[in-house]
């Protein structure tokens, strides 16, 4: 079994599949490299001398520069390399010719068993959601969920609420963002019916929320203002019974995979993320798009330094301009808060072998596969264009997963090298980058992509992931669903009054 991989022939570092001891002789193509020190799993070793200030190349792209001379066979990490990133940049559009998904669909159209809604949308779950418009009613919403589980029967698959602290004491863009995000959740097709729960004195008023929501089906969406009734639990029960009567009408029917929208995310990453799990998700994305479906890639800060892998795949100059504004807009957001654009990866990322933000970003964008970028979406907006979409949002796991849900993702694919238990409101598939974490955290991990290190091809892993996603879309529960782990977090920027 190989101990190291040189990802691109342009690279001057290789990555350890497993811990490599000092003195090990590595065979890389027609050359041999003697390792000068112990190399942890997922970490980098120089495969040629790198001079001080010289570029460190991985994935065929520079991921930083050497801060001192690095001898061939040396461990390359935070002690001897640093980022190349700076503030806003200018970008030039050089569209790739004939850019397209590299994998053609099989002859047969992929099918899953989903729920067709009356507005033409499709869900992969048939649940009742309680959406609080303000944090003051969170506990009321949670009690309504606890006390009304008897309504979960027939084709109704769950009753859930998603507490949050906002909806009041917010102004301007933050207030608008909260309103927009919550309205998008109400529209989500995984919810067969929704109860919108308000207090009554918050600045996100019911009238304001209805205006944001726009046209809606009064049989599907119910509203309760707790200050306006004597017993909010009794009134809530009545409205939830109406929700159950409506949602109970729906059953699973065959649906083509072109109706699927899948979010793509990574967290608790390691040095194998960009070699195993993220490229596997990229192959999956290409396969689904070839079937006519849609995928969403977010975490804008984790695109910093890897823009060259994305920008020229934009389907048009208009999409390119939106992508540039997304990247530079997020850099301005950092700068406005006196934060450096090139903030280092987390301690866990560094321990797993990721040294710089470029290192992390080049691995992160592998989830986008090879398809053209069809559109760039603002936070809180929902997918309108088939294909690969970019979504404005931060890297924070809960915030970005909530944004993916609000954008219309039926399911989220979440790659991880170190493991994480949380779940979004939609099924959240945890994909291991290595077999050790898949074995250790079986109650967290749903899919093992560590097999790529052990000889499985990326094409095989991508097809295997597509088959698994179709099973989840047809009702197979993910571990976060089994554990009842579901939550949201809303992006904020301004003051809290």
Alpha-carbon Rg, integer: 24 Å
Kindly estimate the percentage of residues that lie in beta strands according to DSSP: 15-25%
Helical stretch tally: 12
Number of domains: 3
Oligomer: single chain
Q: What integer is the average pLDDT?
A: 93
The number of strands is: 23
Uncertain regions spanning at least 5 consecutive residues: none
The helicity comes to 25-40%
Biggest beta-sheet profile: 7 strands, parallel
Structural class: alpha/beta
Give the overall silhouette. Answer: globular
Intertermini distance: 59 Å
- Largest sheet strand order: 19-20-18-17-21-22-23
Could you give the topology of this structure?
Blueprint: E1 4-5, E2 13-16, E3 25-28, E4 31-34, E5 44-46, E6 55-58, E7 61-66, E8 75-76, E9 81-82, E10 111-116, E11 122-123, E12 127-132, H1 138-147, E13 158-161, H2 172-186, E14 191-198, H3 206-213, E15 221-225, H4 232-247, E16 253-256, E17 261-266, H5 277-290, E18 294-297, H6 317-336, H7 347-351, H8 357-364, E19 373-377, E20 387-391, H9 397-406, E21 411-416, E22 428-432, H10 435-440, E23 447-448, H11 458-473, H12 479-483
Parallel strand pairs: 12-13, 12-14, 14-15, 17-18, 17-21, 18-20, 19-20, 21-22, 22-23
Antiparallel strand pairs: 1-2, 2-5, 3-4, 5-8, 6-7, 7-9, 10-11, 10-16
């Amino acid at each position: 079994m190989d101990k190291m991989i040189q990802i691109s022939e342009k690279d001057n570092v290789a990555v350890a599949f497993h811990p490599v001891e000092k003195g090990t002789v590595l065979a890389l193509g027609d050359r041999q490299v003697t390792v000068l020190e112990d190399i942890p799993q997922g970490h980098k070793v120089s495969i040629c001398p790198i001079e001080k200030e010289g570029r460190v190349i991985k994935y065929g792209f520079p991921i930083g520069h050497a801060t001192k001379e690095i001898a061939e066979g040396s461990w390359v990490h935070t002690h001897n390399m640093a980022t190349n990133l700076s503030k806003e940049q200018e970008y030039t559009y050089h569209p790739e010719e004939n850019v397209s998904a590299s994998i053609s669909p099989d002859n047969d159209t992929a099918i899953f068993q989903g729920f067709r809604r009356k507005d033409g949308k499709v869900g992969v779950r048939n649940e009742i959601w309680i959406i609080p418009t303000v944090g003051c009613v969170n506990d009321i919403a949670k009690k309504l969920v606890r006390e009304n589980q008897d309504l979960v029967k027939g084709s109704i698959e769950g009753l859930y609420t998603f507490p949050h602290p906002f909806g009041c004491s917010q102004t301007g863009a933050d207030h608008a963002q909260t309103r927009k995000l919550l309205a998008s959740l109400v529209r989500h097709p995984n919810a067969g019916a929704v109860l919108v729960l308000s207090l009554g004195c918050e600045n996100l008023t019911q009238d304001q929320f209805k205006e944001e929501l726009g046209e809606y089906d009064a049989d599907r969406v119910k509203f309760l203002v707790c200050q306006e009734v004597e017993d909010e639990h009794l009134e809530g029960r009545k409205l939830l019974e109406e929700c159950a009567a409506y949602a109970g009408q729906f059953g699973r029917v065959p649906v083509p995979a072109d109706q699927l929208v899948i979010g793509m995310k990574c967290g608790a990453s390691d040095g194998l993320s960009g070699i195993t799990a993220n490229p596997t998700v990229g192959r999956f994305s290409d396969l689904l798009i070839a079937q006519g479906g849609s995928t969403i890639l977010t975490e804008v800060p984790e695109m910093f330094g890897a823009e060259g892998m994305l920008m020229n795949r934009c389907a048009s100059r208009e999409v390119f301009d939106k992508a540039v504004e997304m990247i530079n807009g997020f850099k301005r957001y950092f700068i406005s808060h006196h934060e450096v654009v090139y903030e280092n990866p987390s301690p866990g990322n560094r321990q797993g072998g990721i040294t710089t933000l470029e290192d992390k970003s080049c691995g992160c964008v592998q989830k986008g596969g090879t398809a053209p970028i069809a559109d760039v979406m603002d936070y809180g907006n929902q997918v309108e264009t088939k294909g690969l979409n970019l979504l404005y949002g931060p890297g924070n796991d809960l915030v970005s997963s909530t944004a993916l849900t609000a954008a219309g993702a039926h399911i989220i694919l979440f790659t991880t090298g170190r493991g994480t238990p949380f779940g979004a409101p939609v099924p959240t598939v945890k994909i291991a980058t290595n077999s050790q974490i898949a074995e250790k955290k079986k109650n967290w991990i749903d899919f093992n992509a560590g097999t790529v290190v052990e000889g499985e091809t990326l094409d095989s892993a991508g097809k295997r992931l597509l088959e698994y996603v179709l099973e989840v879309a047809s009702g197979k529960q993910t571990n976060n669903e089994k554990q009842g782990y579901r939550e949201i977090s809303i992006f904020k920027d301004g003051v809290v009054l």
